[in-house]
Amino acid sequence: MNFTRFGAVALSALLAMPAAADITIAHVYGKTGPFEAYAKQSHVGLMMGLEYATGGTMEIDGEKIVVIEKDTQLKPDIGRALLEEAYGDDAVDLAVGPVSSGVALAMLPVAEEYEKILIVEPAVADSITGANWNRYIFRTSRNSSQDAIANAVALGGEGVSVATLAQDYAFGRDGVAAFEEALAGTGAALVHKEFVPTDTTDFTAAAERIFNAMKDVDGEKKLFIIWAGGGNPMSKINAMEPARFGIDIATGGNILAALKAYKELPGMEGATYYYYEIPQNPVNDWLVTEHFARYDSPPDFFTAGGMSAGIAVVEAIKAAGSTETEELIAAMEGMSWETPKGTMTFRAEDHQALQSMYHFKIKVDDTVEWGIPELVRELTIDDMPIPVRN
């Protein structure tokens, strides 16, 4: 699309009060708390996705899009109550969010109770489109299995021994479980698992347990870290010199602020959901150009995810010709649409968006303040057999 910026239009749509004919969307997400940076990116991306998919009008078939923001504060009980409020008192047509997997799991039954669509973005725990799923849930973000399989492909191999460090909640435990299963198929061995509280800042004890478990293991050794939010375990553990035990640190992609720590580990490999220079397609070209123009910075990890969700909303309503739930479900099951990452497809069986991931190797450039995830190869939908929900 070759159209100029429509930021003022998007802002007016956000601030307007819903009218009878408006299409109303609730963005229920953790605006405050340790994932605030993720939330901000997600909301910017959502609004840019709605703008892009409507050609800047913020309308679908003449009906104005109105977005209502609600802050979960990263608390499951608040997330549940706010989604009830959105579906009930606000009578929104559908909802998007949240940031945290724990909050998402509390919100899923609300969508089923009210029989309204919840597009999950960017929470990633497998159980969201797995054991706790219901037919009103669609997810545009990747899930833990997609992260895990992509990283297993990037890191695994015959004779490789791996330990994991993750946060002790749904995101971390689902991620490690999926990674362990995927890693087995590569010939590598998972020799130690370490889970710590989400707010951990001192990793000394955990690192010592990992080092003791791996120091006498032969062959290539890697510590794979699954982490969200603050704490900076990678830098802190790297400062403890794991290399003296022959251990290389590995992790997946992250937001640009977190990538600053990656500069300490040139050549580190992993797999990422998004880095703005990797995908080559018209949607990402627009996102990168517009984001630089508006914010004087590149779009980040969760900006791309939010945009994917915004485009999905518009394409689903266009395809359904309606905002009625059953018509939306019929249109969205199996729906493919274009995103900053290329084509995504909602799998009909569990409504998980299938999508590419990217095997990277960190390159250091002194003129760039973060470690650059340089593409090794794109891992397509066909490269990753993502398990269907139980």
Automatic annotation (TrEMBL):
Keywords assigned by UniProt, alphabetized: Amino-acid transport, Signal, Transport
CDD domains, sorted: PBP1_SBP-like
Residue intervals of the Leucine-binding protein domain: 23-363
Keyword Transport among record annotations: yes
Database matches in InterPro entries: BCAA_transport (IPR051010), Leu-bd (IPR028081), Peripla_BP_I (IPR028082)
Domain of life: Bacteria
Signal peptide stretch: 1-21
Homology family: Belongs to the leucine-binding protein family.
Name of this chain's protein: Substrate-binding domain-containing protein
Organism per entry: Meridianimarinicoccus marinus
